[in-house]
Hints:
There is one protein chain. The chain is α/β, with parallel strands linked by helices. The protein has 14 helices and twelve strands. The strands form two sheets. It has a six-stranded parallel sheet with strand order 3-2-1-4-5-6, with helices on one face. β11 and β12 form a beta hairpin. α3 packs parallel to α7, α7 packs across α9 and α11 crosses α12. The two termini are about 40 Å apart.
Amino acid sequence: xxxxxxxxxxxxxxxxxxxxxxxxxxxxxxxxxxxxxxxxxxxxxxxxxxxxxxxxxxxxxxxxxxxxxxxxxxxxxxxxxxxxxxxxxxxxxxxxxxxxxxxxxxxxxxxxxxxxxxxxxxxxxxxxxxxxxxxxxxxxxxxxxxxxxxxxxxxxxxxxxxxxxxxxxxxxxxxxxxxxxxxxxxxxxxxxxxxxxxxxxxxxxxxxxxxxxxxxxxxxxxxxxxxxxxxxxxxxxxxxxxxxxxxxxxxxxxxxxxxxxxxxxxxxxxxxxxxxxxxxxxxxxxxxxxxxxxxxxxxxxxxxxxxxxxxxxxxxxxxxxxxxxxxx
Length: 328
């Protein structure tokens, strides 16, 4: 419960604020959204004006379900609405950034510019592009940002409806890949606590249900796996298929379940002229060093990179070259 030790930093930031804006990374997942919703509940308990900034136009299935079911229950705004909701005194506005600490990954760069007081709550390691002008509560030993927020909810004894507890639990289940990655005794306890508040395992599975077409496309990526340097799995998509970033991430997670594999790298097209790379590690292989050389970001166990106006083959060559160098 590292975030509890940092509660004074959080309390000070919240106490001085009249209006709080919550923001996570682009391409929201259930950990990002769940942690925002949980933090929103904490702030409502403290009687703060609170707005969630979401600029994404499309969402993965679980996020789409939650946003649809909570329509009208939480205050969601876009970047171009920030100024009209700000408190007149600039110093009384606070931006809490959840589930990322990298400036290029946030939903709204405008929010970083417009709101001076910033606080990061995240479970990813800091890196070269970490937001500098912000207070930071970072616990990279915790499974997910949802676990961190659930710890706060318990500490502050916040009353939480069962559906909100379910959303937060789904973020933990997602980021641990059903308790197979980054899971500690604290993770199990936090899940138990959320279940005691009424979180439904059945509803979690509903939120995490997959699109059958997307699942089929991911299986194609598993047909061309290569093993590099004895313990690194690598696979690439064809140039004819476009994936969502989270689809590449799910394949990278899956590759870690194969015998002897310590790290995985997945390359695929994620936009008309954009190639994406998703990488994962069990912790014994530091993928962050490779990702940094590629202009990407992340920590020792999870990260990504993007490449513009290039080809999958060129990205493949560069990634394989760096993997080979890392193994020498």
